Amino acid sequence: MPGIILASATTVNFAGDWTSVDTALNSALGPSLVTFLGVVGTLLIVLSVAKYLWDRRRGGGGNHQHVLYTTLFGAILAVPAVVMPAILTIVDAVVNLFLKILP
């Protein structure tokens, strides 16, 4: 049975589905939520980099993992209209490639 399901799926479009979800959420919640998340994400990035530079200045060496993860999380919050579609487009390409390879 699993072969039948894979054979019927020719392509996937996660990025297109994300656009539909993003549009529905923006119309239901309003664009103020997206603006708020953008501000929070930007603050996370700025404060994380400032804390890292402060720790380096004080001789602590700074926490590289903390800055990486916080910046990544802040970037996802700050630009959901760019980051999520980009990630989903890459996933689309990989999944569609495997669907073409499989019989």
Q: What does this protein structure show overall?
A:
The structure is a single chain. The protein has a domain at 43-103. It is flat and about 60 Å long. By secondary structure, the protein is mainly α. The protein has five helices and no strands. The longest helix is centred in the middle third of the chain and has 27 residues, at 31-57. It has helices at residues 2-8, 14-29, 31-57, 64-78, 80-101. Helix 3 (31-57) runs antiparallel to helix 4.
What brief labels describe this structure?
single chain, 103 residues, mainly alpha, 5 helices
Brief summary of the model shown:
With 103 residues, this protein is mainly alpha-helical. It has a domain at 43-103.
Number of helices: 5
> In terms of per-residue confidence, which ranges show pLDDT below 50 for 5 or more consecutive residues?
none
Shape: flat
Radius of gyration: 20 Å
Order of helices and strands: HHHHH
- What structural class do you assign from the helix and strand content? mainly alpha
Mean pLDDT: 81
Oligomerization state of this entry?
single chain
Number of strands: 0
Distance between the termini: 14 Å
Amount of helix: over 70%
Largest β-sheet summary: none
